[in-house]
Amino acid sequence: MSQSKLRWGILGTAHIARKNWEAILNSGNAVLTAVASRDEAKSRRFIEECSRQASHPTPPRALGSYESLLASPDVDAVYIPLPTGPRKEWVLKAAAAGKHVLCEKPCGSNLQDLKEMIDACEKHRVQFMDGVMFMHSSRLDAIRAVLDDGKTVGAMKRIASAFSFNGGEGFLSENIRMHSQLEPHGCLGDLGWYCIRFGLWAMNWKLPREVSGRILSQVGRADSPNSVPTEFSAEMLFDGGNSQTFYCSFLTENQQWAHISGDKGALQVNDFVLPLFGSRASFESQQPHFSIDGCRFNMETRQRIHSVEEYSNNHTSSQETRLFRNFSAQILSGKLNQSWPDQAFKTQQVMEACLASARAGGGLLKI
To answer: Is the pLDDT of residue 248 over 70?
Structure first.
């Protein structure tokens, strides 16, 4: 493309879109030109409220339909934060309209839906990517360097992670994530997606050989056709002796840690999804040493803190800003990135297998 900035539209006014409103502003190579809702007054209110805290040089237009945004000639790419259930329809329409697509996760209601979405984007020569922000953090490069140095962690053997928040009673009875037609995967899609993604990334996108899943608890809103997982755990086995486990939940308080064990040491990230507030993103490595001296049994942690200069949010260096900067730069380069849809597809593939195993009693299921 000959232009210097990618022109964005936001299709929907979900709460997460407020965070990305400012990420587009801070990216440096993108501009927000329109926000669409099914109610123009709602779009205007969204723009006014966001502008009070972070105003774009030229306020985006407020549109009263998704169709009008997709027909806009001044929109090159759309960010789609709609619920998972109706998302496929609008991804297909966006692709057919020639708009590049960044969508929230989980990407599709099922793997076949996601395949259709990716195929449509490929057919119309537009980019597809899911909105996993931590994939664009500079901390990930630092973690990879430690994993690959051969000395700190050594041969990787085990990956464990947890991502949860306590939604409370109102959340369980009212939130859209408790509706099986809107968010059919419950906490597995909303939170487990990140755990699966981190493991696949750590394994250099190697798929597990087998998985098993457990629905530990499930709830449905009064108007939901079925219950959805509110607590979920899974185990994944890889060829070569590696394994991964994760836990996700709407019932336990905030946690978002990931741990990688190797034959020489271990690596721990205490905030792998949403970096803790501050100007540095950190993780730690340990190479504990155990020694016995007569009656004294000594364990030394031999801990090292690694960090990169990166603000946690709402900053030009933050991971959400880097996401929009990276996406925009890719499109402005005139080339598409095939690895992004592949990563989304593999994440959905593993997630669906974990859920299928859980619904079949929790036995091992081949990928």
So the answer is: yes
Between the CA of residue 281 and those of 276, 284, 303, 319, what are the distances in Å? 8, 11, 17, 10
Q: Which amino acid is at 174?
A: E
Residue 248 identity: C
Structural domains of the chain ordered from first start: 6-134+319-337 (3.40.50.720), 138-312+347-366 (3.30.360.10)
Express each pLDDT in 94-118 by its tens digit.
999 999 999 999 999 999 999 999 9
User: What is the 3 state secondary structure string of the chain?
Assistant: CCCCCEEEEEECCCCHHHHHHHHHHHHCCEEEEEEECCCHHHHHHHHHHHHHHCCCCCCCEEECCHHHHHCCCCCCEEEECCCHHHHHHHHHHHHHCCCEEEECCCCCCCHHHHHHHHHHHHHCCCCEEECCHHHHCHHHHHHHHHHCCCCCCCCEEEEEEEEECCCHHHHHHHCHHHCCCCCCCHHHHHHHHHHHHHHHHHCCCCCCCEEEEEEEEEECCCCCCCCEEEEEEEEEECCCCCEEEEEEECCCCCEEEEEEEECCCEEEECECCCCCCCCEEEEEEECCEEEEECCEEEEECCEEEEEEECCCCCCCCCHHHHHHHHHHHHHHCCCCCCHHHHHHHHHHHHHHHHHHHHHCCCCCEEC
Of the pLDDT bands very low, low, confident and very high (cuts 50, 70, 90), residue 227 is very high
268 near 279, Cβ under 8 Å? no
Q: What is the pLDDT of residues 151-161, one digit of tens each?
A: 999 999 999 99
The span from the CA of 205 to the CA of 217, in Å, is 29
